[in-house]
Design brief:
By secondary structure, the protein is mainly alpha-helical. The protein has 18 helices and no strands. The chain has two domains: about 325 residues, Na+/H+ antiporter like fold, CATH 1.20.1530; about 60 residues, no CATH class.
Length: about 425
């Protein structure tokens, strides 16, 4: 186990250093004015609204087949379950005083670049040798491991860009927690109540006058709202939330799933068919996202100073992401494998990926989510700093990696 731990520390440290160095480059480019303030803003929005949707389309499309979703089904419910647990922990922490912008950092870990880099490093150093079986070589389990991690990334990316902006949008800035459309304001003028979740606002920040939780003040000559008025208000509120949730990255992922599940499009678009130049061009554009996003994140470290965060919040975040989350995922996989051994196919790499699917630092793309949510500059700067620190402590992932490999051997699935 000592050798496994050393290999895990080496692999995760390399992954951390590669990320942090790019952040340093971005910081230097901004400091020495190679990137202007306007350029930083333009790159941020271009990255979020164009390069990221292209990346998700290129990554998700080839994997979005009916057979893949059928063969790899355990990844989907377990990934959603781990996110639900993280959401519960994050919301309870928020109720206890943790800032709202920490919530997505509990839920969404790095599910793409770090796991893929980690699995390559482990294969090169011999860390995956214990997962080799009689019918699978090291090369084949490395390949299937990448597919498993990408299926997990598919789930993580879709939920992140569907729910991430909503998590961030509850910041107590000059907008309602629940978006209010112009039509909805007009509906209010027609004597309709609307719940604005006003507990986050000071008296000056209230957009609508109130007399109690969720009630709109009515003049003496106004009548209470009818059932029809309430339904209209609810539908318009739902419409606003849909508009908020359907963002460019999510659209890129949904389009990839849609085209991937149609056999003709999957073959012609994501295979060697007549539409392959389109997917190739989108893939080339998507590859620009990661480097540019990390450069912008490093630039934010210089331009957006950010407010100070309490060390306790950081310790709690990292304790969850590197200790509690892996303890949960490894325990769940071990329990399923020992209690219902035939529930899922016996596959050591599947066990390893399920155990690690919930582990690691917050996703770098949360900085893009923060931009989409239009957070105040100081909060956005704090998000950038938290993400940077989280990658500085990423070598901690070596411990859950070692335990996950040990678990696969104990269940008798490995060699």
């Amino acid at each position: 186990m000592a050798s496994d731990l050393l290999e895990g520390i080496t692999a995760s440290a390399k992954a951390s250093i590669s990320v942090i160095l790019v952040l340093v480059y971005g910081y230097g480019l901004r400091k020495f004015k190679f990137i202007s303030q306007e350029g930083e803003s333009n790159i941020s929005h271009l990255d979020t609204k164009f390069f990221l949707p292209a990346l998700l389309f290129a990554e998700i499309g080839p994997l979005a087949t009916a057979s893949n979703l059928g063969n790899y089904w355990p990844i989907i419910p377990l990934s959603l379950f781990f996110q639900l647990v993280a959401l519960t922990v994050a919301m309870l922490s928020h109720k206890a005083g943790m800032p709202q912008h920490y919530v997505p950092m509990f839920i969404f870990n790095n599910v793409t670049s770090l796991p893929l880099l980690l699995i390559n490093s482990l294969a090169a150093s011999g860390g995956l040798d214990s997962l080799v079986t009689a019918d699978r070589t090291l090369e084949s389990i490395q390949k299937i491991g990448r597919v498993y991690f990408l299926i997990n990334a598919l789930v993580g990316n879709l939920t992140r860009f569907a729910l991430g902006p909503c998590d961030f949008f509850t910041q107590p800035v000059n907008r309602p927690l629940m978006p209010v459309s112009t039509d909805l304001m007009k509906t209010h003028e027609s004597k309709v109540w609307f719940s604005s979740y006003h507990e986050h606002y000071t008296e000056d920040e209230q957009l609508l006058p109130e007399t109690g939780p969720g009630e709109i003040t009515l003049d003496d000559d106004q009548e209470p709202p009818t059932v029809k008025d309430r339904i209209i208000a609810g539908l318009k509120s739902a419409q606003d939330w849909i508009v908020l949730a359907i963002n460019p990255p999510l659209m890129g992922g949904l389009l990839a799933v849609g085209f991937g599940l149609i056999p003709w499009f999957h073959r012609e678009l994501f295979g060697p068919g007549i539409l392959s130049p389109i997917s190739d061009s989108i893939s080339n554009v998507g590859k620009l996202f990661s480097a540019l996003q990390m450069l912008v994140l490093g630039s934010h470290l210089y331009s957006k100073k950010g407010t100070k965060t309490k060390p306790f919040f950081l310790v709690w975040l990292f304790t969850y992401r590197f200790v509690i989350a892996p303890a949960l995922s490894i325990s769940v996989v071990y329990f399923i494998r020992t209690t219902w051994p035939n529930l899922i196919d016996k596959d050591p790499m599947l066990d390893f990926v399920l155990a690690m699917s919930n582990v690691g630092p917050p996703a770098l793309t949360l900085s893009a989510v923060a931009i989409m949510a239009e957070l105040p500059s100081d909060v956005e700067g704090q998000v950038s700093r938290i993400l940077t620190v989280s990658y500085a402590v990423t070598p901690l992932i070596a411990f859950p990696v070692t335990i996950a490999l040990w678990m696969t051997r104990q269940t008798g699935v490995g060699s």
